[in-house]
Amino acid sequence: MARSLFDPSAEGAFPVSRSKLELFLECPRCFWLDRRRGIGRPDTAYYSLNLAVDHLMKKEFDACRTDKKPHSVMRLHGIEAVPFQHPQFLGWRDTPQGIRYADPCRIELFGIVDDVWVTQNGALHPVDYKATSSFSVPTLESRDGYKRQLDVYGWLLQKNGFPLAREGYIVFANADRERTGLDRALQFSLSVALHALALLWIDDALPAVRECLESDIPPPSTNDCVWCSYRRDARASEA
């Protein structure tokens, strides 16, 4: 797949996906190599089972969207909202369109949302689905990437002129591993984890993203990046 590489001489906003923003936060050097030189990290495997769970969850919540009623897991957690209906919603959930906003620093941040819920007063909650399997109810503890994902979706909703609620939600589909056998079916329990949205870090990050892209010299590696360590060690062993 052709990469959209940054051209310092080009006018207009340069598109940066939510996942590429996360890459920048992890390691600016890996981000620079990816967006300036087209040298990305190796692709991770696609887990078709996770994609199937995501697809089926969307069907469940879309049925509630049509009926304008909350999903049972929303009622269970006392969330007074319903899945959001809007002409643009399917575009927000579509690859590669998504929901977008071009910041004044000429970075067009975009993301692909799983869901959006709306309160009675019209405020929107960004929502993402996650498939997992743990012995306890999943939480957002030590899952900062999930929290930032909701922050980005909330930021994009707000920048597109929609009133934003204070919270975003992760809906976990947790596979039961304590059964005596598979019996040709996995059983999942649904739970919801709340995240208090934080948006200011995004306004601070985007100018830094632009500065990184405009540099003709790659920035230093940060955060003990294992990929940079691998490249460095590989070069040294081949010398």
Description:
The chain is α/β, with parallel strands linked by helices and 239 residues long. It has one domain (14-238): Alpha-Beta Complex (Lambda Exonuclease, Chain A). The protein contains 8 helices and 8 strands. It has helices at 18-26, 28-37, 48-67, 72-76, 89-92, 144-159, 200-214, 226-238; strands at 14-17, 81-83, 99-102, 107-111, 115-119, 124-132, 167-175, 188-196. A 5-stranded mixed β-sheet has the order 2-5-6-7-8, with helices on both faces. Strands 1-4-3 form a 3-stranded mixed β-sheet. Strand 6, helix 6 (144-159) and strand 7 form a beta-alpha-beta unit. Helix 1 (18-26) packs across helix 2 (28-37). It starts with 13 loop residues before the first strand and ends with a helix.
Helix content: 25-40%
Name of the CATH architecture: Alpha-Beta Complex
Compute the number of structural domains: 1
* Main sheet strand line-up: 2-5-6-7-8
Oligomer: single chain
Unreliable stretches? none
How big is the Rg?
20 Å
Largest sheet: 5 strands, mixed
Span from first to last CA?
Answer: 31 Å
Q: How many helices does DSSP assign?
A: 8
User: Based on helices, strands and strand pairing, what is the structural class?
Assistant: alpha/beta
- What's the average pLDDT? 94
Q: Label the overall shape.
A: globular
- SSE string: EHHHHEHEEEEHEEHH
CATH topology: Lambda Exonuclease, Chain A
Number of strands: 8
CATH C-level label? Alpha Beta
Beta-strand percent range:
15-25%
